[in-house]
Design goal:
Rossmann fold; four-stranded antiparallel sheet; six-stranded mixed sheet; 14 strands; 10 helices; Alpha-Beta Plaits; 2 domains; single chain; alpha/beta; globular
């Protein structure tokens, strides 16, 4: 695959704090690339440098092999986590207004079709639901037909149905050969949408690859989960790791049959037992820790 956007030893300092510490990335054309990390990991600063909003302290960013310049600014679309829409005008009028900022734009009818805006495009933006607002903001980010689309926490605050609908819109955009750079705290979203992810912590990339490859590289076990009420004394099991949560107990095991046999030997009820594969959330917590970040 051709590399569309790349960084070489990207560094950013803020008043003596090194927020980004030597990040190297290569984002292929036509992929959805996810940048993940806990609060304070440096991912927001990294994305803002990639967008051209922040200047690096040192290092290089190249778009199609060249430093960021006027062509890059015309070729990208950005959907910020929080964007103020002009009140008292319609979605159509918002699209027309943002379209005037670019020499080339997509027809409003095409944007409406891509982002499923037809039923509310002529409605005052104050009267839009959360999901409708996000779809309109996505259309605004696409108004200049960008080659590279930045999506910063695009489904925060959406209900599960609206989130799934938004995912389908991203798949449509990818199907047109566009490149997407996504930040999200929803691990299921990253697994569903991203061809490749990079996990950041303390300003560095600590893991990178496809979601499936990363899970295969880090885990060779599965998770058995029981309510804490059904396993009130979660003492260790032979050859299995037991993790007690607030309401549940998780047993990490390579041998499901042996773990179940030991639970039965303790006369525990398995009526509410759940067995699941490892997920990106497991990987995220293993690599970045479980402590609360401010």
């Amino acid at each position: 695959m051709t590399t569309l956007l790349e960084t070489h030893h990207l560094v950013k300092h803020f008043h003596g704090v090194q927020a980004v510490d030597g990040v190297d990335l290569a984002i292929p054309t036509g992929c959805c690339f996810g940048l993940l990390g806990p609060n304070g990991a440096g991912k927001t600063t990294t994305v803002e440098m990639l967008e051209g909003i922040q200047k690096p302290t040192s290092g290089q960013i190249r778009y199609q092999g060249e430093p960021l310049g006027p062509r890059f600014r015309q070729d990208i679309g950005i959907m910020f986590q929080s964007t103020a829409l002009q009140d008292h005008i319609t979605g159509r009028e918002n699209l027309r207004m943002f379209g005037h900022f670019y020499p080339r734009t997509l027809p409003i009818a095409e944007l409406a079709d891509t982002c499923a805006l037809d039923e509310f495009i002529d409605r005052d933006t104050r009267k839009l639901s959360g999901g409708q607002r996000q779809r309109l903001l996505l259309a605004i980010a696409l108004v200049n037909d960008p080659e590279l689309l930045f999506l910063d926490e695009p489904t925060t605050g959406l209900d599960p149905q609206a989130r799934r609908n938004f995912w389908e819109l991203i798949h449509r955009i990818k199907a047109r050969g566009k490149t997407v750079l996504l930040t999200t705290h929803y691990m299921e979203e990253a697994y569903h949408l991203c061809d490749e992810i990079a996990i950041m912590d303390h300003g560095r990339i600590i893991a990178q690859g496809s979601p499936r490859d990363l899970l295969a590289a880090h885990f060779d076990d599965v998770v058995l989960q029981l309510p804490l009420a059904d396993f009130p004394d979660p003492t260790p099991l032979a050859s299995h790791t037991v993790i007690q949560g607030r309401d549940t107990v998780e047993i990490l095991t390579r041998d499901v049959n042996a773990a179940i046999a030991e639970l039965l030997a303790r006369n525990l009820s398995l009526a509410r037992l759940q067995i699941r594969p490892r997920t990106l959330e497991d990987l995220f917590l293993e690599l970045t820790g479980r402590e609360l970040r401010s």
